[in-house]
Structure formats: C-alpha cells, structure tokens
Q: What sequence folds into this?
C-alpha cells in the first residue's frame, strides 16, 4: 500500500478521526481530532497545550488514530505512531499557514499567537485499511 492511498482513504472517510492516547500510568483516553495527512508517513493535528491529550502526549507519545467506516468510504482506517508536540511560538509561526491542517485554525485557536496552541506531528509507524472485502492493506515506512 502506498502513502497516497492512506491519504486518499482518510480524506474519503471524513475530516475527523478518533485519537487514542494514554497517560503516564497507561490509562487510555480517546478524543476527536481533525488530522491532516502530510508528507509520507506524517499526520498533523492541533490541540490546546492545556488539554488532557497534550498532557498524555507529553507523558507517552504513542498514539492510535481511527477513521470509522461511514458507508461511503473505502473501509476502516487505523494508523499508529509516535507524536511530537510542536508548541513554541516559532512552531506556531511556521505551521499556522503551512497547510498541515485540513481547516482554518483561527476558528478554534484565534491566532498563531495563542500560547495554548500546540501543533502535533505524528510519525506514522503503520497504517491499515480494512476494506469491504475484509482483507487488510498495510502501509509501513
């Protein structure tokens, strides 16, 4: 499977996905994010630095994304990786207009000068698309 197929599947399945994180004690947490699939093997999203997901990522960078099948898409997509918080003002300045998100972040975060804004870069280690034939297709770097 090629990265372009992962990106196309995520786009077809919708603009939101469920993100699984775990805190330092291993307790799970699920939240909704609007991920952007960037260059090969990279998924981006934005969050508030004060959020539970940001605290979890600081303690445990392992994540899982889930795009459920919506009937019209190519199947169920999951991706697993390691997250890095990009939360300095230099990061916000660089990433605000870089096109890593699928939406205008000003509606959620106001401006790039919001100190509570963090971009999250995920290095994907594996993605799996389970199509209607129930045969998994896997992408790895």
A:
């Amino acid at each position: 499977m090629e990265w372009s197929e992962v990106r196309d599947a995520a786009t077809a399945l919708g603009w939101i996905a469920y993100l699984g994180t775990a805190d330092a004690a291993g307790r799970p947490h699920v939240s909704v994010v609007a991920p952007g699939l960037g260059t090969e093997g990279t998924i981006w999203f934005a969050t508030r630095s004060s959020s539970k997901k940001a605290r979890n990522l600081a303690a445990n960078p392992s994540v899982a994304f889930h795009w459920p099948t919506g009937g019209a898409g190519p199947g169920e997509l999951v991706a697993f990786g390691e997250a890095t918080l990009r939360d300095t003002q230099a990061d916000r300045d660089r990433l605000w207009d870089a096109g890593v998100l699928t939406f205008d972040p000003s509606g959620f975060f106001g401006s790039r000068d919001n100190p509570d804004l963090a971009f999250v870069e995920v290095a994907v280690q594996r993605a799996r698309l389970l199509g209607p034939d129930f045969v998994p297709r896997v992408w790895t770097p």
